[in-house]
Amino acid sequence: xxxxxxxxxxxxxxxxGRQAVALVAQLHPDVVVMDIAMPLLNGIEATRQIxxxxxxxxxxxxxxxxxxxxxAKVMAIGAVGYLIKQTAAHTLPEAIRRVHQGKTCFSPVISxxxxxxxxxxxxxxxxxxxxxxxKLSSREMEVLQLIAEGKAxxxxxxxxxxxxxxxxxxxxxxxxxxxxxDTAGLTRHAIATGIIxxxxxxxxx
Length: 205
Hints:
With about 200 residues, the protein is of the alpha/beta class. It is built from nine helices and four strands; from the N terminus they run αβαβαβαβααααα. It is about 50% helix and about 10% strand. The longest helix is centred in the middle third of the chain and has 16 residues, at about 110-125.
């Protein structure tokens, strides 16, 4: 669809979040269209890393999920738009143009909810800010996702190019910070907080 647009050039496509981060560092695109359901590195953490290493790139989220928690997380780390896949078929090209121009762009249902939340916050005298509730470091988030995807310590170490001992330290830190002391619990936490999706929720594009 995007290749039919004369003013939009698709310069790269990624199969997982880690590849997306690497491609952005290599290609420096103006806009990244990012899914949240990404293997190896979820779209939320991939967005965080992309905006840290390539701050000039705009990130537009395209997801099957419209939950407020997902929207709040990606907006807190600097994404400039959020579209729901079911309603984005004809609006994606224009959304890309808008964020490239420095504007924000949301699916109508998300925009309506965000405005309502801001009004309620204003009425209660609260500051209207999107805060990322995560208390985990970027590396801990990566380790948590790989653990939840069933990777052993050695596989995780190879994927992240760190030692097994370092992986073990991160695993212990995760358990201490989250007060969770088994792999099943860490996996449930990863699903509940959107770091990975359960098997019935995975979306393949």
